[in-house]
Structure formats: C-alpha cells, structure tokens
C-alpha cells in the first residue's frame, strides 16, 4: 500500500494535500454514486486521505453531477469534467484520455500527492507506467503514488490485469448490494429476470450485442429505464442487471475482457429454457 508519510505540502499556504480521486462515472454506472460514497467512507488503509475529487461525466450531465458532488463531498476540492461524445459508438476512450492527462498534470504540478483512479476499465496500466517512469521523480516500484480502485462486479476488470498488475497498487472493493428502486436480478420475480427471459426467447443463437435487445425491451416495457437509456448507459445497465441472469441460463460472453462486449446465445441456453431459436 501507499505510504501516508509521503504526503506533501502545497506551495500555496502550506496546506496539506493528499490523494486525488479520478472517477470514470459512465464506466461505473448505474452504481456510481453509491460506489463513490462507499469508497470515501471506507478509504483504503495506508493511502493518503483524499483532498480532491474529479468526476468525468457526459458533457450534458456536468451540472447534475456537480450539484451532487458538491453537496455530498463539500469538504473536498470537487471538479467535474465533461467528456464530449463525438460518435455514437466509440466514445469510451475520451474519458480514459481525460483522466490520464488530468491526473498526470495534477501530480506533476503538486496539486495532489497520489493518483487514485476509480474505474473498471482496463486501460490505466499505461497511466501507472507513465507515473512510475516520470524522469523528474525517483520513485521505487513500491512507492509509485498510484492506486487503481475497481469494483467487485463480475466480469469487469480483465483477469490478465488482476494477474499481472501489482497487488499493492490495485484495490478491489467488496461487492455490496446497491439500493435501487428496481428489484434485484437474483429475484426470479424481478423485472430483470423477465427481461432476461425475453432476450432468451427472442434473440437467435449466435453473437449479439446488448443494444440488439433494446427494441425488444422497449416494445414490452416502454416506460422502463432500459427502454430510453443511451447506448453507453444501456450497455452498462444490461451488463450489471440482465447479464447475471442470462449467465445462469447459459448465455456466454464471446470476447471476455474486451470491449464492446459481445454476448453469445447458445443452444444450451435455449434448451435450458425450453425455447426454440
């Protein structure tokens, strides 16, 4: 873990600075608010206390997230960065790049003492390497001021990252149930179970994307949150709520650890539900 004694003093007024938290909001949806709150309430042992919180959100949601963050964490320096989506399909890298550049800038300028990235994305190994190899600093491997926080959600961070990334620089949060208005997917009477049953019945055997299912859901539940969700939000909700049920039914992920996720409807899944393709 990181050394709390390595906290530095700001050049302005001698006030103590600490960790900067950089949150990939869309990647953690729909649980972001609860996850950020849990992280701050159960801060990892040995990591300097946070002094800055930066949220990376959709450009049109900046003011909404700023209002929430400033109300919830007014004791921290809060910043909300809008990530512009320039295409309908390939926007996820925009947030990754913004997080990396902001984190490096804050660290080099000594606005923070440590970088704490909160995301289940697998693209932050290069950020760790850039901090480790910064020529103006003489950190040892153990003392690199970086921590990568991920959730315990199934199938998010790739197994390769967990296998090779330094354990002391990776903090996996304990999986917790999130309080939401909709029922838990483990409940066989929940809406999520009904959505999974519909997908199982209507999607043919072979590869499919989460967004291939949206029109099906909209036809059956036009007012449900999934029916009108944006592409990125729909994919995250589908992965976190519908996929756990489909997985138990025999549906597979065709490209584990890669994005965009490709699911695969199997003959075994169809057979287990007594359906025909």
Record keyword descriptors for this entry.
single chain; disordered N terminus; 10 helices; 277 residues; alpha/beta; three-stranded antiparallel beta sheet; six-stranded parallel beta sheet; 16% strand; 9 strands
Q: Would you mind describing this structure in some detail?
A:
The chain is α/β, with parallel strands linked by helices and 277 residues long. The chain is built from ten helices and nine strands. The strands form two sheets. A six-stranded parallel sheet has the order 3-2-1-4-5-6, sandwiched between helices. Strands 7-9-8 form a three-stranded antiparallel sheet. β2, α3 and β3 (77-83) form a beta-alpha-beta unit. α7 (191-202) crosses α9. The longest helix has 19 residues, at 231-249. The radius of gyration is 20 Å and the shape is globular.
